[in-house]
Amino acid sequence: MVRQGKNQRKDGECFELTFNAVWPSADSFRTMPKPLTEREHPMAQDDHVFHAGERTVQARAEVSDDWLERAASFVRPEMPQQHRDFFENLPMLFLGLLDPAGRPWCVPVFGPPGYASSPSPSTLELQRAPTLSDELRLDLTPGASVGVVGVDLSNRRRNRMNGRVRYARGDAITIAVDQSFGNCPQYIQTRSLAPARDEPSAAAGRRSSLYEPAVRRLVESADTFFIASRAAGSLKGGSAGVDASHRGGRPGFLGINEDGSLSFPDFSGNRFFNTLGNIESDGRIGLFVPDFETGEAIILTGRATIDWSPGRVEAFAGAERVVDVVPEEIWHATATLPVTATLAEQWPALDDTGTWDEVRLAALNTDGYRRFQIASKRRESDTITSFYLTPADGGPIEPHVPGQFLPIRLQGNDGSILRSYTISQGPNGRDYRLTVKREEYGLASRLLHDRFKDGDIIEVASPAGDFVLDDSTQPIVMLSGGVGITPMMAMLDGLVAALRAGAPRREVYFIHATQNSASRAFRSELEAIVRQHDWLHLFTAYSAPEPGDRLGQTHDTEARLGMGVLAKFLPFDGYQFYLCGPEGFMRALYTGLRDMGIDRSHIHYEFFGAGELDEPEETGSVVELPTRATVTFARSEIQAEWTAQSGTLLETAEAAGLRPFHNCRSGKCGTCAVRLLSGAVHYTRKPLVSPADDHVLTCCAVPMDERVEIDI
């Protein structure tokens, strides 16, 4: 009889309780390998389930004696039946083994069904040798310590076993069990596995470096890795032996530092601290970093240390310390997994856990802005120019979602000028492309076009904005006018990248309106994409064609883009519509789409005017605002009285003599977002940009409490 339950404490610690009663058959006695003697059994030698290094870390982490007493009961000297069944049915296991120098390596072992079996609770038999065991000269001699971890990627179940090699002959290995225990499912990403190959390809590996682009890409995009560690001194097996474990996080949680070392956050877990205890005891570790989609992996051995300082873990919710690894030997291996797998679901708590790139970016920001330089300028039309911006500090570039905009700060003759411009290409990790139309009375646009040149500095904030593609599979209609083409180019770029990564294709109708060929931006770029992808349908309307323009060659119609033109070109059924352009252009199309019965949830737009395209909604509720309120600007140490005549928090701050950041004044750009320290606010109009948690948009917020404090 087997009864199993999962338990998770309120503080995030989790553990597994298993009650097992198995009556072995007469046949099982005949097939059992000779059991370990009392002298051989490490748990009989040592009064503690945990060795000295583990107990040191447990004490440092303030693990209570009561918890340790209960934790010791979760560790068994042999495998319960469900662990035996679990190991036998997995397509692969991960082993921690030592090389002749005593360095741990973490490697998978896999084979056709039946490659792993457990003839008795104290034995695990493998009919295949671990990956690269010969190349890495892994110790499989009788008595050698070995750690085993198995993870079912389809359901997050995880079990571990530590033992010693009983004997090895050819590819057959028998492992005698010293310790068996389960782990909770935290930080395991579920994956959909392709059918396992009956005869997996033999792994091939070569020595490599973290500075190779392919290696760096795999490491920095990993959301999972496996780690082998060892205790110090003469290994006795069990706890005082070799261990194998699993780590998971957001892609980017395993970071490469400038000096070639690695770092990863250590999240709250079952409080056994097997891995950290081994690092405290010895420090030598091995990592196996897989790419589940290609079957390749990075395998390395090195030395690890634990950083207990609180500052480095702040960006990783749930993490309690950081582990730093200095690699000593790195291998890039292919065909290391018997199956390929696609991500099905991340561990739900990962959204706020941060990445090392985010940590580096936060350190580079000064008052919310970073210095970028103009790498190049490219003229797109008679009035439109693209500016390619790269980090002047040499740091990483903050990723954006196609369609978002970039707040920038320019230094002009009269001080700082704040604007926001759409990023007109998808994320590439190298640069941002801002495409700006020169407006006759536009202070910032004239400054960019007329004075700024290659090498000049522009300060940029974090990308923002909610005008991004939906996640449905419906066809897309992009309707742009003039420079409103910029977010559509970024979205199209993102769709092409997603298709290359295996996303399903979506039909796209790219419909652009402009005066003529002289004012048309991105013509050659668009036509090149059309030639490569049959799902992209390009339609162009010229309202004032030039003599050299040819209907049917340079453009498809000679008229302003309206519903009559669209009705001839596009069947209105089951589409997601995206609008961006001049106000009159957008209002006419929005009204026409709504009149044709298109639901407002299927119409998305980027609009920086003072009004809204949406019809007012009847909420059925009335918000009661105070007649007076005290607004505290914490950073400036200024207080101001607010009344209904004071306007928004932004206007209240300006009336108090402050000059907070802002741009659109209508909740469209996010530039005015500040932290709300206390009190509550109400938005007089619904902003199109959602500020970060604990932040408010001052340009459209008013006090809802009699006392409000904001970080200005």
From TrEMBL:
It catalyses: 2 nitric oxide + NADH + 2 O2 = 2 nitrate + NAD(+) + H(+); 2 nitric oxide + NADPH + 2 O2 = 2 nitrate + NADP(+) + H(+). The keyword Ribonucleoprotein does not apply. It comes from the Bacteria. Keywords: FAD, Flavoprotein, Heme, Iron, Metal-binding, NAD, NADP, Oxidoreductase. Its cofactor is FAD; heme b. Its EC number is 1.14.12.17. One of its GO terms (molecular function) is 2 iron, 2 sulfur cluster binding. The keyword Metal-binding applies. Residues 367-470 form the FAD-binding FR-type domain. PANTHER family: FAD-BINDING, PUTATIVE (AFU_ORTHOLOGUE AFUA_6G07600)-RELATED (PTHR42815:SF2). In the C-terminal section; belongs to the flavoprotein pyridine nucleotide cytochrome reductase family. This is nitric oxide dioxygenase. It comes from Alkalilimnicola ehrlichii.
